[in-house]
């Protein structure tokens, strides 16, 4: 199992490290756009990018920790470290939204004139395009590699993209109409959206930390693998699953005839473990063998 996960862990770490460089580059570009225009919305957008740098660092640390093999103190591995990073990212998205609300309010109280908005919007648009492309890479790779830290970082970047699009729309309207109040108002409206994204990310990650079960589709595949390869046993019941990063932990009770030898029951367990691991990559299967009088009527997979 370790040999299968090592290349995946190395790829996760490389992508997470690249994210830090991308976040720093985008932060610099956005700050230049703010200096060119004096726009509170662009300044808020740059503030949000500071959080991008912090979350990229948190993602790299989490990926490195989760890649460590099981040890005596952590026999099930360190995969949940990524969920802590995803919760942190959700919390930092919320903090970014609060920062934008604050700056928008200050701009409403003390309106600011925009300088050279067209050039500033072009520079900010470049940063937005970079963020959008990299966010897609993070989310697609995070899902493919079962890395909640990378996927969470990608969702965070998409929140930044939404912020930037709203900011550019506000600046365009403000420039065309002369209503500078649109600058902070639209910045505040976009902050509501990224606040929602941060909340959803934090809640989902906390659910995974509390040993959320695998998806119904995965549980159905497990049941089918048991049904197709459990010849000789009577039933399987109390099937339980939980996920931790790329790893899926599965355990269930296997009922066999009372007169069956330990060796024969062990052979069935080996066959089931092999079948489940072929059906689902990165699984850890534990089977508890029981005699026939332990069979259950409800919720069992009959063999």
UniProtKB/TrEMBL annotation:
Q: Name one GO molecular function term.
A: cadmium ion transmembrane transporter activity
Q: Kindly report the protein's main subcellular placement as a broad class.
A: membrane
GO CC annotations, alphabetized? plasma membrane
Residue ranges of the Cation efflux protein transmembrane domain?
18-210
Q: Where are the transmembrane segments?
A: 12-34, 40-63, 83-105, 117-137, 157-179
Would the keyword Ligase turn up in this protein's UniProt record? Answer: no
Annotated membrane topology is: Multi-pass membrane protein
GO process terms (BP)? intracellular zinc ion homeostasis
Under InterPro entries, the record lists: Cation_efflux, Cation_efflux_CTD, Cation_efflux_CTD_sf, Cation_efflux_TM, Cation_efflux_TMD_sf, CDF_Transporter
Q: Where in the cell is it found?
A: Cell membrane
Which ranges carry the Cation efflux protein cytoplasmic domain? Answer: 215-291
User: From the record, what ranges are coiled-coil?
Assistant: none
Give any Pfam family that matches. ZT_dimer
**Alphabetic keyword roster:** Cell membrane, Membrane, Transmembrane, Transmembrane helix, Transport
Please give the NCBIfam families that the UniProt record associates with this protein.
Answer: CDF (TIGR01297)
The UniProt similarity line reads: Belongs to the cation diffusion facilitator (CDF) transporter (TC 2.A.4) family.
| Protein's UniProt name | Protein p34
Query: What is the originating organism of this protein?
Result: Hyphomicrobium album
Q: Mind giving the lineage of the organism this protein is from? A: Bacteria, Pseudomonadati, Pseudomonadota, Alphaproteobacteria, Hyphomicrobiales
